[in-house]
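Bug #77: duplicate submission created two jobs. Keeping one. Sequence:
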Amino acid sequence: MTPIVQTFQAHVSSVRKLMGFDREVLEIAIANVRELREKLVQHHKLDNPQLTAQRTLDILEGIRDHDSLRPRYQTIFNQALVLVVSYFASSVHDLLRRGIGHALEAQPEPPVLREEFRLTLRDLKDFDFVVREVAPDFLIQSKDISFQDMQSIARAFKTYLEIEIRKDQAVNDIILGQACRHVIVHAGGVVSDQTVRQVSGAKPRRVKMTLISGDVVQFVPEEVELIAESMTGYLQSVSKMVGDKFGVQV
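Kept job's structure:
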């Protein structure tokens, strides 16, 4: 995997740990109570469950096995989706930025070299003006590209790098994730008519096949994992296309 994909996967791993926080705490508690029970049974010859912590152990294992605490962590699962979408946007930004940097030295000259944007003296003052390093940032900022909109992303790669990204199930999963991220952050999780329209063409997909206006969106860890999986596949694919286009590793 390329460094950009590796970084994204590291972020996903941290989100996965966040979603499993309750289970991790339970496992620690269960391990310590089990150790206490074994010591009481082996060294103090106790066999009464009321005195060996067996009952406490049974309760904790029951909570773990039935995911009894999961409903209390629903807010965390939604925020986990928000984090994953943000990490994805950052990774795509890095991919496009590096692609533009390599395009500046490509032969024959790509269309991106015909792009125009305005610079002020303050801009030059704020940056060490090394063209390959700074020009991609100026271009991305001046074109106001949204990295939380798959159409905007696809259009940018096609316009500036002549790379066409096809729409598939992975893209549809990501569109759903981006739409729900907006709902969670800006509308308290309540699905709007606009949200329904936004995802109406995102089919086939694997997550939340039906969204109804007025419903409150709620994610479970498995859904966040599926969206993260689609994002990883997307980043790997686009990374390869950029690398193949310019003969580099991005």
